[in-house]
């Protein structure tokens, strides 16, 4: 069975004699650095001299050094720069400054699992991966709430890799909610598959196909937008709260019967076969090779695909409708303020 750790299983004082270098001050970096700092852990933020995040980190009361300097001062290195630059940052700034027994930590296992970084043999290599965007990791911590996270040990040279990583997970607030033990392989492969097949790729394609089907059949784009995109949030909120059954139980019997009889006709066995193909490309490294080459070439296809997505009718319709909603909300707010003497 899967191990899940909570606050009682971890001790932040494990990190009392350590300094943590948080490299990067973006989505995850700012949240980890601030949460660690407020949990009483010594933190240095590592950023390039030219970095636009420097002033933010300094304004937040944190010490900022160059990545190389931060690594050399620290014993615990948390790599929170974008995945696509980690191998270069490792080579230039991290590896030359690592010492025996340091911890090298990631929030996503891509570079380790696909051998883009071959970590030095004298350090612990761990992962603490909050299952949420950084701004929520920060907001939850401030509200005394937790953010679920994953923990994995790739290399344990000190014998204390797990204890130290758990202390870190507790200090950023993850152990309040629960920290699930996994491996680098499982985290990376399931994460890439999930975002490609279901979360980001699958769901946007489903929405666009639904929207196009209605609009091509002569229905109004506004109605199609509400039906296929806007209402998705309400359905997903119910699934999030109580699983598929909570959703089925909340919609009308007509919606439930229609969905149960038609759903598998839409997302049918061919879709399942496509998913298996996509999973295979994740497992055999084909996807990651493609992504690395795409980056080396300056992201030509990525740019074109984003442009095409931006130009889809649904974007223009959505923008117009969301403006109308904002306008309606403002009206409400005005009405309320006017009632107050
Ligand atoms: P961001 O894109 O938000 O990181 C940006 C930060 O990295 C900035 O401070 C930027 O500073 C710095 N940076 C960029 N390039 C370099 C460089 N070459 N050298 C030094 N610093 C650099 O990253 P995320 O927080 O999104 O991701 C960090 C890690 O967390 C990744 O491994 C990601 O997979 C993982 N993760 C992300 C989640 C998310 O929701 N975003 C969720 C869970 C895990 P500068 O101003 O110098 O560019
Ligand atoms: Mg991901
Ligand atoms: Mg993910």
From TrEMBL:
Residues binding Mg(2+) 1, per UniProt = 191, 195
UniProt superkingdom = Archaea
Which residues does substrate bind? Answer: 252
Enzyme class, spelled out: oxidoreductase
The keyword Membrane belongs to this UniProt entry's keyword annotation:
no
Gene Ontology terms: biological process: isoleucine biosynthetic process; L-valine biosynthetic process
Xref: Gene3D superfamilies: 6.10.240.10, NAD(P)-binding Rossmann-like Domain (3.40.50.720)
Q: Which UniProt keywords apply?
A: Amino-acid biosynthesis, Branched-chain amino acid biosynthesis, Isomerase, Magnesium, Metal-binding, NADP, Oxidoreductase
Q: Which GO terms describe its molecular function?
A: isomerase activity; ketol-acid reductoisomerase activity; magnesium ion binding; NADP binding
| HAMAP family referenced in this protein's UniProt entry, alphabetically | IlvC
Protein name listed in UniProt: Ketol-acid reductoisomerase (NADP(+))
**Species assigned in the record:** Natronolimnobius baerhuensis
């Amino acid at each position: 069975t899967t191990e899940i750790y909570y606050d009682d299983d971890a001790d932040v004082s494990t990190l009392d004699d350590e300094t943590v270098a948080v490299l990067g001050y973006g989505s995850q970096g700012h949240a980890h650095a601030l949460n660690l700092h407020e949990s009483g852990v010594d933190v240095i933020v590592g950023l390039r001299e030219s970095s636009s995040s420097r002033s933010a980190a300094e304004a937040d009361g944190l010490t900022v050094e160059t990545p190389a300097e931060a690594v050399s001062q620290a014993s615990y290195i948390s790599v929170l720069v974008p995945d696509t630059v980690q191998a270069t940052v490792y080579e230039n700034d991290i590896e030359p400054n690592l010492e025996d027994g340091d911890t090298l930590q990631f929030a996503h296992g891509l570079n380790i699992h696909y051998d883009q970084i071959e970590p030095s043999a004298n350090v612990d290599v761990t992962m603490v991966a909050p299952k949420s965007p950084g701004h929520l990791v920060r907001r939850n911590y401030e509200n005394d709430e937790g953010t679920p996270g994953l923990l994995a040990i790739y290399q344990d040279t000190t014998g204390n890799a797990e204890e130290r990583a758990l202390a870190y997970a507790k200090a950023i607030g993850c152990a309040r909610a629960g920290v699930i033990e996994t491996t680098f392989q499982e985290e990376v492969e399931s994460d890439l598959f999930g975002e490609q097949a279901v979360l980001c790729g699958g769901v946007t394609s489903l929405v666009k196909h639904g929207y196009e089907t209605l609009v091509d059949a002569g229905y109004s784009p506004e109605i199609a937008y509400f039906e296929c995109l806007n209402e998705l949030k309400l359905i997903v909120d119910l699934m999030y709260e109580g699983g598929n059954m909570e959703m089925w139980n909340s919609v009308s019997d007509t919606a439930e019967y229609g969905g149960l009889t038609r759903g598998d006709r839409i997302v049918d066995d061919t879709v399942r076969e496509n998913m298996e193909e996509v999973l295979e490309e994740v497992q055999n490294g084909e996807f990651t090779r493609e992504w690395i080459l795409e980056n080396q070439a300056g992201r030509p296809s990525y740019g074109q695909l984003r442009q095409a997505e931006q130009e889809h009718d649904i974007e223009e319709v959505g923008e117009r409708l969301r403006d109308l909603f904002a306008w309606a909300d403002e009206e409400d707010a005005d009405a309320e303020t006017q009632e107050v003497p």
